[in-house]
């Protein structure tokens, strides 16, 4: 798809003017992790940036973390954290720690191997200034391979093919593991 119109870029934010991005009714998008993440619209949405001459502040090793999709936590749409939290952007070093803690969680609690899952992450800082990452995992054999990086996917049931967990990077631990379809 190709979109045209006027816009301006400041820091990491692209602002459309004088029109809104009609698809989701927003006036701005944040450029990070090689995606345009539309903010303050009808719902969260991302588009892959195929080519850009703009240098990004936030990037990750897309080969090493190819099974990860990172999203901005927006309290208007997500309710996986309570209290006064702020969205947080992960870097490669933190994502390495997330990956090792998640690996332990999967090997301790599930029958599948960690490499069989796609991962969607929402990271925040809580009131104690701890970095917490909410992760949704789902099996690669399902048909999400082209869409899991664009928006948070919700499913019902599915057993250990679908689960969520929270990781505390400052305590090197996981908690609130919930496997779909298990009592």
Notes on the structure:
The chain is mainly beta and 183 residues long. The protein contains 1 helix and 11 strands. The radius of gyration is 17 Å and the shape is globular. The N and C termini lie far apart (43 Å).
The whole-number mean of residue pLDDT values reads: 85
Structural class: mainly beta
Overall geometry: globular
Query: Roughly how many Å is the radius of gyration?
Result: 17 Å
Outline the biggest β-sheet. Answer: 6 strands, mixed
User: What is the β-strand count?
Assistant: 11
Helix content: under 10%
Query: Cα distance, first to last residue?
Result: 43 Å
Uncertain spans: none
Fill in the keyword field for this structure.
five-stranded antiparallel sheet, 183 residues, mainly beta, six-stranded mixed sheet
